[in-house]
Amino acid sequence: MGVEVDTKEFKLKPMKCEFNFLSKSDGSAILSQGETVTLVSVNGPLDIKMQSQSIEKSTLEVLFCTKGGKPSVADRYKESIIKQTCETAILGSLYPRSGITVTIQELEDYGGLLSCALNCTCLALLNSGLAMRFVFAAVSCAVDELGNIVLEPTQEQATSARALLNFVFESRNKNLLTGFSEGSYSESAYEEALERCRAASDLVFTFYRDIISKYSNVI
Amino acid sequence: MKASVGDVVLPGDYCEEISAVGEKAKVIIGPGLQKEIDHVYVTKAGILKKRNPNTYWVDNYQKRYIPARGENVIGVVVQKAGDIFRVDVGSSITAALSYLSFEGATKKNKPDVQIGDVVYAKMLVASKDMEPELVCVDSHGKKGRMGVLSDGFVFKCSLNLIRKILNPNCPLLESLKNEWPFELAAGMNGRIWIKANTMRETIALGNAILGAEYLSDEEIKSMCTNIATILAGHVS
Amino acid sequence: MAEIYKLIHPVKYFNDYISRNVRPDGRQFHEHRNIKLNVNSIKASEASGVVKCGNTTVICGIKLELATPKAEEPDSGFLVTNVELLPLCSSKFRPGPPSDYAQVVSNIVTDIVMNSECINLKDLCIVYDKLAWVLYCDIVCIDNDGGLIDACVMALISSLKTLTLPNVTYDPETEDIKVDITKRSPLKVNGLPVATSFAIFPFFEKSILLTDPSAYEEDMCGGNGANLIVCWNKGFLCGTQKFGGSTLSMEDEKQALKIAKQRTKLVEKLIETCIDNESK
Lengths: 219, 236, 280
Known about the structure:
The structure holds three protein chains of three kinds. By secondary structure, chain B is α+β, with helices and mostly antiparallel strands. Helix content of chain B is 23%, strand content 31%. In chain C, strand 9 and strand 10 form a beta hairpin. In chain C, 46% of the residues are buried. The chains are: A alpha+beta, B alpha+beta, C alpha+beta. Chain A: Pfam families: RNase_PH. Chain A: It comes from Parnassius mnemosyne (clouded apollo).
């Protein structure tokens, strides 16, 4: 098993990104990972209601809009994941008594929606010029019936899998920032998945750097 | 990841070069950099730049203005409150502009500023914990070029574009001013005020500035001549 | 004096405790609070459980109803879990529709129970495509002092363990339903999922894991509720959630899994003893 892991190449779905997709927001990005597409707009720091202001850090508001448009309890959960991830990444203490709004619009969902949304959020934050502690990369993987680990599963692989694991890593020490899972799995599968995703997160960080250098060179 | 001057950097990268220089001499770390315990970390995505001696910053793309002391900005008066005007400069909260901070203004002799007027002013106080404060006079009490901007046309752009056109090496304004006469004020908050003789010229000027955002110096020059020929009516 | 210090320098106050390897309430970093469990205390519901982890108090009641199964899954019943966070349990909550946090907690608890596959929904079906049980599991938090998910899962599982379903006879011709409440059969519960919460406190370059955090510790570590929730069931993981707070290194991760495993054994024993005592 160990040999197999070493020789296997880490391949993620092809990623495409465009900055400033929306002209009126402070930062926006559209990202496609394979067939899954999300659009994120970031606004801030903004003036917000007195009662929601915090004197220590900026108040973060995350809105997740599904394609269907009807809000559900599962969307609140997704918002909570994205919000808490961003809260750690953004240096909110530089913008006290102000608000930052992040709006995520799902455009196409062919598996891995939430990790695509997280990566897109990170790109939109980079575009908005808000100060951040680090960048983050989300990688998803599936554990199939035999206990094998499939990085970035397709929708068919995801539905037949025993478990789906999602990890978000930060860029400084590649430590785990956020993680969430579906299904049940063994401890060894979990640890292997974590290491595989940690290694694969490098590809996402390289992608971020490529995009930024592409845009920085023309300015 | 380790970064050095001239690299494309992402938040979370650290620069050992700055820490090393900092041990011997005084270093100024500008926007996009932050000191944390013993490392200097990047907080914004862009290109790490250096100016001698020992000033470092990250040149990043940004649209939203964060007030900074000493910058000249263009704002719109939105409210008169007691003895201050509230000015919208595009930051999270409005900036305060005392009516005594105009040239020659006294308690009796109030300046003639109405709601909706565009003012060109300097940031006097800009702290994250305080309301930003503007002034329309310099330290000698002279207005210089600051004050109410009458007529003309204001438009918004990214903060990078302002820095680009105000750069002495940028050929844009050099080329344009040879083509037709105009007045221009650029605020560091991403707002530009322009005034030309005709509507046609104003629009041409605005388009030339906005079009220069992603162009190189050579391309800017050819674009300016291009616009001038169209404006002169040689090409329809 | 300490109270004033806490008010003026909240972060420094907390740091001072951590640097002396102790938590503000006197516990060690990996010590969890005492757990008290009582089952079948609400006689009006079919099954119930009250859990107290330190100050955190959660009560769960299960109500039974009969319904027609969904057309897409004609052989499954329903398990509906809902967590209510009333203004009673903490000053953070306001009266009115469920807050975002209550919805998130509900979602996590439902996910844990579903992912652990401890209840087979097919067991809840009585007649294919005609009749199935609906288990309404209402969990109400009475006092929220951190580690809410742990308490909710524990209350829910211990209630499910004691639940007995009455016998139902269905006449396909007359569509007549007869419920015999005197004859009851227990619900099959496969395994015993147990959640363990951690808060992760950034302490200089390291991060410190705090097992079973109190509400105050959760607040100090940032984020909404606990930062890391590890859920074990029969030696398998059935949910690892990490949100906000400080980042988690590999060693801390392994340690958290180990602590959670130990605590799971303890909680399993507790639930089993409690149910045994009750049935005697």
